[in-house]
Design goal:
Layout: E1 10-15, E2 18-23, H1 25-30, H2 41-53, H3 61-68, H4 70-73, E3 80-83, E4 87-91, H5 92-111, E5 125-128, H6 143-154, H7 156-168, E6 172-175, H8 182-190, E7 194-199, E8 204-209, E9 211-214, E10 228-231, H9 234-241, E11 246-249, E12 253-259, H10 268-282, E13 288-292, H11 301-309, H12 311-314, E14 318-320, H13 325-333, H14 338-351, E15 366-371, E16 378-380, E17 388-390, H15 394-404, E18 415-417, E19 424-426, E20 430-435, H16 438-441, H17 444-459, E21 469-472, H18 477-486, H19 488-494, H20 516-525, E22 530-533, E23 549-552, H21 555-564, E24 577-578, E25 584-585, H22 587-590, H23 594-604, H24 607-613, H25 622-625, E26 663-671, H26 678-681, H27 692-699, H28 717-723, E27 731-736, E28 742-744, E29 747-750, E30 755-758, H29 759-769, E31 773-776, H30 788-796, E32 799-804, H31 809-817, E33 821-825, E34 842-846, E35 857-863, E36 869-876, H32 881-888, H33 892-901
Helix pairs in contact: 2-3, 5-9, 5-33, 13-14, 17-19, 17-21, 17-23, 27-28, 28-30, 30-31, 32-33
Domain Aconitase A/isopropylmalate dehydratase small subunit swivel: 695-826
Catalytic activity: (2S,3R)-3-hydroxybutane-1,2,3-tricarboxylate = 2-methyl-cis-aconitate + H2O; citrate = D-threo-isocitrate
GO molecular function, one term: aconitate hydratase activity
């Protein structure tokens, strides 16, 4: 509880028979914060957070005034504030290493003479196990049970560890496997829009906005329910769990005005792909986006959440929607308590956080506008979510990509026989069609639409092409329930879209292997095969290692492309197939109407459905209840485990940190281009036998069929170090073939020997030689998932600094949190390419000492093998004083440990 109340904001609110204490923005406005009623709704949430936590140290009166002053500077005055989220959300890929770190911190604090019981979450933490199921089995009624069986076989050690965490740590809950995707479970169950806490000292119930950070970048989905949240690295999340405020700059807020309504036949997916493209073009990295305008009045929360989900794809910190009657409708249908629903409405109205059609538009940094009636059916691909193509242009766009992206246009139309089958395969054939991901499976409109399209297709006698792997992986059990209740699951089953599991599927790379004969044909003939998925990520090398062209689309279009079987079919003008009478069937013939979809929703989705499905959500099924755990206050590490190992971050750590120093005579580990994603830096997909990680696992007795994926082994630093910069599609410009083309894969040249080797092997050789390392990259370094291992692995390889033209928000923060220095060029237009770097130079970075300050100008002295030296001005992208403290301590976890030990 805040110890200060400079603006006399502390008030009480009576709702029904209950009284709540809250921090009133209305009162604060009367008492000195003039004009704050005109702030964007998201800024009001931040302001309330500061009012509630004002203590004169981490939050001062001046900080609060700076947020009020936003109205004058629109967020363009760089001012740091301390934000304390109400809770933390995790998924298992990122959650396991976070719990590993907490367990290691208990050991480390004990070694420093502190009390290990101090290492405990101080805010509620929910971890949803949703990223570990793989679509091995598909297209059969047994797919779900077999995939769950394999999931438990592969992940027994991880699940035992997480169950230990659930018993060892307070304020820590685990949602077991098979429940759903963390973001959909969050939207449908965990989020409350207005949070409450019982204060034992004062015997009061405090009410405040639901805010959170999550270890998955798509945490932003819950902004559709007016819960302000965004993705952070596991490193930041752990600090938030341990009571550290999240240091952030007061953001710019871009207002996105929505007018009109979607036309018949246009889906929420089409809308979000349009919004994503517009915001990418606008440039909103590091900014809040808030949606406003008359278009919100008819927009259900499911559609809002679809837009909120894709914030990482359009680059914003979050995409926020205010509380209004649609919020109340959603809280009601999803089974929140009557008491909570009444509190949300009363609190929002008392705080000036309630939107109506008469609400004046807030003040924004800048605005843009979309008339929803202008949205057209769309896909995005073949490599990036922002690369939207209209459905009517999809065929020609793919042909263009074959020319520009894949350089195989001359081979279009060539077919290759698939061994052991009666069909052939060519470029552009859709070999994977997946209804998957939190983005769309949380939205009944598009899910019912997919089911009805399947029903209409079956009725006309259409079949999915035999080379297509089909899968249905909903984000919650509620979807399976209404599919079963409506009878639509039978129609989806008839087309091979059998239920394969509940969790984050193809867009995290858990698509599983393709049909073996298809995979062989693709690799034997170097085919550019395609996938169509209802996900949010389609970066190269992510969805499936055999598939190079990946398209995001609505669930109905996923079904349609499974029927078409090729990106080279114009779905608007060419038939999907023939009916039983030999007559052509076009997409428009089987596309369901909006009225038909709404009728199915009204008849099959109810409040009772949500309440029954979430009644006992933390208990899990028989398999989860049967998981055995051991260990007490500290974890009993198993040195033979290939899944869970005690990381080396705290080995030999002293109470006082060593002084930071210049980077002297470093070697270059890699020269990377633009848009290097966290997938490139730390892949989540399959582990190749011929890779450092694969060799390590085989040396430890793991058969390649049991490798599992990088994502599931994030609790073992030995695997993850070897997987750093190991994506099969990453390109290090230091390594070329005889023709001068850059070679794909995690390779580098050791200097000065010039030997070609794995990046991991080179890093270990440099470490043995006592040589520090730097990495150079282009624009948007670290886009994609909020993957802490992209920073942890970089640190453990011995990289002292990363020099890029620009950084993605979360990854830059994660690098600082792991003690790696992020740097950008002082002058626009400068890059390692314009500097003519080859990778054989040495690099000294000066100014990294006791006087280092946020955003300080530094100098890189780069020396070529001939002895020629040049000086390049850089800017230190440590942005805040808190981040500087983390960097001085060697990382955020070391900082927290020292604070607790002291």
């Amino acid at each position: 509880m805040a110890t200060l109340d400079s603006f006399k904001a502390r008030k009480t609110l009576n709702v029904g028979s209950k009284t709540y204490t809250y921090y009133s923005l209305t009162e604060a406005e009367k008492n000195g914060l003039s004009g704050i009623s005109r702030l964007p709704f998201a800024m009001k949430v931040l302001l309330e957070n500061l009012l509630r936590f004002e203590d004169g140290r981490t939050v001062t009166k001046e900080d609060i005034q700076a947020v009020a002053a936003w109205l004058d500077n629109r967020g363009k005055a760089e001012k740091e504030i301390a934000f304390r989220p109400a809770r933390v959300l995790m998924q298992d890929f990122t959650g396991v290493p976070a719990v590993v770190d907490l367990a290691a911190m208990r050991d480390g604090l004990k070694a420093l003479g502190g009390d290990p019981r101090k290492i405990n979450p101080l805010v509620p933490v929910d971890l949803v196990i949703d990223h570990s199921f793989v679509t091995d089995e598909f297209g059969t009624p047994l797919a779900l049970s077999r995939n769950v069986e394999l999931e438990y076989e592969r992940n027994a050690e991880r699940y035992q560890f997480l169950k230990w965490g659930q018993t060892a740590f307070a304020n820590f809950s685990v949602v077991p496997p098979g429940t759903g995707i963390c973001h959909q479970v969050n939207l449908e169950f965990l989020a409350q829009t207005v949070w409450t806490r019982n204060d034992e000292a004062s015997a009061e119930t405090i009410a405040y906005p639901d805010t959170l950070v999550g270890t998955d970048s798509h945490t932003t989905m819950v902004n559709g329910l007016a819960a302000l949240g965004w993705g952070v690295g596991g490193i930041e999340a752990e600090a938030a769990m341990l009571g550290q405020p999240i240091s952030m700059l007061i953001p710019e807020v871009i207002g996105f005005k929505l007018t009109g309504r979607l036309r018949e036949g246009v889906t929420a997916t089409d809308m979000v792909l349009t919004v994503t493209q517009m915001l990418r073009k606008k440039g909103v990295v590091g900014k809040f986006v808030e949606f406003f305008g008359p278009g919100l009045s008819d927009m259900p929360v499911a559609d809002r959440a679809t837009i909120g989900n894709m914030a990482p794809e359009y680059g914003a910190t979050c995409g926020f929607f205010p509380i209004d009657s649609r919020t109340i409708d959603y809280l009601t249908i999803t089974g929140r308590t009557d008491e909570r629903i009444a509190l949300v409405e009363a609190y929002a109205q008392a705080q000036g956080m309630w939107r109506t059609s008469e609400t004046p538009d807030p003040v924004f940094t800048d605005t843009l506008e979309l008339d929803l009636s202008d949205v057209q059916p769309s896909l995005a691909g073949p490599k990036r979510p922002q690369d939207r193509v209209l459905l009517k242009d999809a065929k020609t766009a793919f042909e263009g990509a074959m020319e520009t992206e894949f350089r195989k246009a001359a081979e279009l139309g060539t077919r290759h026989k698939v061994e052991g089958t009666n069909y052939d395969l060519g470029h552009g054939d859709v070999v994977l069609a997946a209804i998957t991901s939190c983005t769309n499976t949380s939205n009944p409109n598009v899910m019912i639409g997919a089911g009805l399209l399947a029903r209409n297709a079956v009725a006309r006698g259409l079949k999915v092409k035999p080379w297509v792997k089909t899968s249905l992986a909903p984000g919650s059990q509620v979807v399976a329930e209404y599919y079963e209740k409506s009878g639509l699951q039978k129609d989806l089953d008839a087309l091979g879209f059998n239920l394969v599991g509940f969790g984050c599927g193809s867009c995290i790379g858990n698509s599983g292997p393709l049909i073996p004969e298809v995979s062989k044909a693709i690799n034997d003939n170097d085919l550019v095969a395609a996938s169509v998925l209802s996900g949010n990520r389609n970066f190269e090398g992510r969805v499936n290692p055999d598939v190079r062209a990946n398209y995001l689309a609505s669930p109905p279009l996923v079904v349609a492309y499974a029927l078409a079987g090729s990106m080279l079919l114009d779905l608007n003008n060419e038939p999907l197939g023939q009916d039983r009478d030999g007559k052509p069937v076009f997409l428009k013939d089987i596309w369901p109407s909006s009225a038909e979809i709404q009728d199915f929703i009204d008849r099959n989705i109810s409040r009772d459905l949500f309440k029954s499905r979430y009644a006992d959500v933390f208990s899990g099924d028989e398999r989860w209840r049967g998981v055995q755990v051991s260990g007490g206050l500290t974890y009993d590490w198993d040195n033979t485990s290939t899944y869970i190992q005690n990381p080396p971050y705290f080995a030999g750590m002293q109470q006082e940190p060593k002084a930071i120093e210049n980077v002297v005579n470093a070697r270059i580990l890699g020269l990377f281009g633009d848009s290097i994603t966290t997938d490139h830096i730390s892949p989540a997909g399959s582990i190749k036998a011929k890779s450092p990680a694969g060799e390590y696992l085989m040396a430890n007795g793991v058969d390649p069929k049991d490798f599992n994926q990088y994502g599931t082994r994030r609790g073992n630093h030995e695997v993850m170090m070897r997987g750093t910069f190991a994506n099969i599609r990453i390109k290090n410009a230091m390594v070329t073939d005889e023709a001068g083309n850059v070679v794909e894969g995690g390779l580098t040249l050791h200097q000065p020997s010039g030997e070609r080797m794995w990046i991991y092997d080179a890093a270990m050789r440099y470490a043995s030689e006592g040589v520090p390392l730097v990495v150079f990259a282009g624009k948007e370094y670290g886009t994609g998932s909020s993957r802490d291992w992209a920073a942890k692995g970089t640190n453990l390889l011995g990289v002292r600094a990363v020099v890029a033209e620009s950084f993605e928000r979360i990854h830059r923060s994660n690098l600082v949190g792991m003690g790696v220095l992020p740097l950008i060029y002082e002058e626009d237009g400068v890059s390692w390419k314009t500097l003519g770097l080859k990778g054989d130079e040495t690099v000294t970075i000066e100014g990294v000492g006791a006087d280092l300050r946020p955003r300080q100008r530094l100098t890189a002295r780069i020396t070529s093998p001939s002895g020629e030296t040049r000086e390049v001005p850089l800017v230190c992208r440590i942005d805040t004083l808190d981040e500087l403290e983390y960097f001085r301590n060697g990382g955020i976890l070391q900082y927290v440990m020292r604070q607790l030990a002291a």
